[in-house]
# Entry
Amino acid sequence: MSQRTNRIRSEIQREIALMLERGEVKDPRLSGLISISDVEVSRDLQYATVYMTVFGGEGEDPGAQDLKILNGAAGFIRSRLSRRLSMRQTPQLRFAIDGSFEYGSRMDRLLKSLNLPQTPSPEEEER
# Structure
């Protein structure tokens, strides 16, 4: 990935996170704390997928409603981004749930359920 693409990814991630933090996306249906974990930008910079993690949401699938709301507000968020970023054309946004946090939690629970004997760390072996 080019240096320019990486810079654009990080700028989009930072600006969207700031918008959510400042409450610029005013929808009372947004639940919980939303974290923008990553942004993938297409090679031609026309499209960007914004990955988010929702903490403290309600219901069985807490991020589903937030995902729907943010995808509905993608045009508004894109227009705000176009004012803040110095680009000829701001990428079309698509929001997606970042499953890595849930995946990591699930792996951690599975490993703990195995009840394997603890191996001493190198510091403990020296004692």
About this structure: The chain has a mean pLDDT of 84. The first helix runs from residue 3 to 22. The chain has one domain: 3-116.
